[in-house]
Amino acid sequence: xxxxxxxQFSPFEYRRGLLxxxxxxxxxxxxxxPLGTGRHLGDATVTRIAERLERTPAQVLxxxxxxxxxxxxxxxxxxxxxxxNAQIFDFTLTDEDMAALDALDRTGGxxxxxxxxxxxxxxxx
Length: 125
Hints:
The protein is mainly alpha-helical and 125 residues long. It has helices at residues 16-25, 44-53, 57-67, 79-85, 95-102, 117-124; strands at residues 4-8, 28-32, 72-73. Strand 1, helix 1 (16-25) and strand 2 form a beta-alpha-beta unit. Helix 2 packs across helix 3 (57-67).
């Protein structure tokens, strides 16, 4: 049994079924690519919340993971962004913010690591 299952996980890939199953089995779900390699940073919901909180969209997305108690691996090669991404422990998203971000899910809450069947087939080999 693995101790950690590292999957793409964010409000846009909020795989609730997978998260629930990992918790049931005692496996830690760890989020990689929580910023969607930058794709999620310009989303209207994310930017609206960020502006209201005077935070960056990246901080909002990372904070969403932290509040879901999901270990998260943000990636950046820029020192200032790395430092900025670490500044997520001095604010909290409201229940309304969390619900708005949850609603961005594109996976239908799947229990699978990949929502796209074609991608799963290619990765098997």
